[in-house]
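Worked example

This section walks through a single chain of length 292. The input is the sequence exactly as stored; nothing has been trimmed or padded.
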Amino acid sequence: MGNLKEIRTRISSIESTQKITSSMKLVSAAKLRRAQSSIQYLRPYSEKLNEILADLSSAAGSMENMPLFEQRTTEKVVIVVISSNKGLCGAFNANIMKTVHQLVETQYADQHRNGNLQLVCIGKKGYEQLSKQYPVMQQNEALIDHPDFTEVSAICEELTQRFLKGEIDKVDIVYNQFLNAATQRVTVEPFLPIVHLTTEEGTPAGHDYIIEPSPEEVLEELIPKIMKTQLYKTLCDSIASEHGARMISMTKATDNATEILRDLRLKYNNARQSSITNELIEIVSGAEALKG
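Given that input, the structure is written out below as tokens.
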């Protein structure tokens, strides 16, 4: 009977866990639909801005005189890390941490050793893990739950101003790019300085525009808006990726719970049948002993 009670307790525990994982799967699926809609609407806008920027840069000619295009010796580096606030989303956060470590080891080892490497952590999980090894310039958890373009713009403006003052030489963004509900790709995206101005096909556009007052002046006005949109897009990508990763993870957990429950119920029925058989044998044996 002790064995039967233990199995019943395990079945009850796993059933409770299955209800939780199933509910989390449904919640993540609902959040994913909203996040997926946001990124799908934002991408065409971002791509069109980049196309306009490519046209303008082609018309403007050399970008060497524009401060945000200045290629310097990389001495002071900032890595913007976008993770999640919560776990239970598979390897979503682990892949981000791994990529940051590899990036530092392969490209920014000297900067880290000299104390010239800093992080901007958007998301609690990234901050908790990476702050133990690297200095954190800024940390923000609220943006993951409530993405706000104004707050993203403030982060972008701070990074841009520091770059223009010479306090930063390079900024990279590490995030999960959303491909579909089941696939997320960890991406390292250069942010500052601006290193390429091309269309989606990879070549400068050649539209014949009449630009007033001048391509350079329009670029100075347009570039900050494009950079803010780029950073906001990476945030939306990461949020959609998180919900997709959690939905898949909870689906697998629910399926595993179903398999375990099936095995435990079979084991319980076998143990119960064996117990009943033993009791019948004892009753029959007792009856035979009384007859004798």
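What to look for: The beta strands are 77-82, 117-122, 136-140, 170-180, 183-192.
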